[in-house]
Write a structure and sequence with these properties.
Structural class: mainly alpha
Strand content: under 5%
Radius of gyration: 22 Å
Number of helices: 15
Shape: globular
Order of helices and strands: EHHHHHHHEEHHHHHHHHE
Distance between the termini: 27 Å
Helix content: 55-70%
Strand order of the largest sheet: 1-4
Amino acid sequence: MSQKPLPPLLTESTVHPPVPVRSGRLVSLDALRGFDMFWIMSGEHLIHALAQATGWPVLRWMSSQLHHAEWNGCTFYDMIFPLFLFIAGVSMPFSLQGKLQRAGLRSAEQLSLPDKWPLYRSMLKRTLILIVLGMIVNGLLEFKPYEHTRMASVLGRIGLAWLGAGFIYLNASTRGQLIWAVSILLGYWAAMTLIPVPGFGAGVLTPEGAFSSFIDRILLPGKLHRTVYDPEGLFSTIPAVTTALLGMLTGTLLKDTRRTMTQKTLMMIGLGLSLILLGLIWDQSFPINKRLWTSSFAVYVGGWSLLFLAVFYYLIDVKGLQKWAFPFVLIGTNSILIYLASDGIVDFAHTAHFLFGGFSQLFSITWQPVIQALAVTGTQLLLLYVLYRNKLFLKI
């Protein structure tokens, strides 16, 4: 029996239920993406509720980590965005694997220009879709006046940074990609600390005085999220390119058949720890700051991203311990969809209250927020499971 075609954007993905590592599928990548998105879709509310109900120090500490740093510094919550971008980068070498194998090539830079043009078009299309979806999340369909419409967004930055890193990946060797990454980080550092901003001078890394904020006020159309700057602005997207590029370099490492999986794990751990240390050292002269996406921030969270991937890769793909990660796989295989749905398109709290509101009344007032948070998570996972079983994925 022939299968009916799926609606646009909802296509049957290459994602399948967890399979053995020998198939070449990195289940750990889907699981890590799901782990990352879990905290945004409902995990943070669950931890906050548990911390309030129990008062346990470890849960209170976890709750404190699920808030952005006020300005300089970095919490776990600040790592969620760059980790997602890093994962998007890791996927790039795997998505090109079949094309390179059919052409008998070892690296993307060896592709001819005619072979690259379809890739460029596909990458540009993906970026434009993400920019538009990000603006929709910002309220584009409310048809606000132009000056009240925010153009920058999380999804837009993911699209633009991934596009920039993708162009570098397709046209530079591994050594060239490293040179690009280092040059971007050093160049951004120099621009942010040496170029004077009218009325503030050079190297004033405040919301109003930072050079990236100055550029946003000049070039970014519409509304700035924080009035004087935008945390997903244009200029601060440049160092975010290196976050995606680090992911692509990591994907190249994971595809390398000359090293064992254990060796790859150890290399990711070693590189991750080195980058964390470098980020902390750089923090002394160029503060770790997520909103400015400073070079030290890119290096620091890049190191943590490598460590997170190393743990998931070793447990899931090396040791084959996959069952525990299935809820994360459900989230990770439909990450963009659940992000859009959780950011206001679907009222999961209302649905969860409709389904489990009576059940939550059986508990004390102290524990009712915990039950309600669990109900929201359960409702989201139920939706994702139905989509997963029917092989429906929002593929951009």
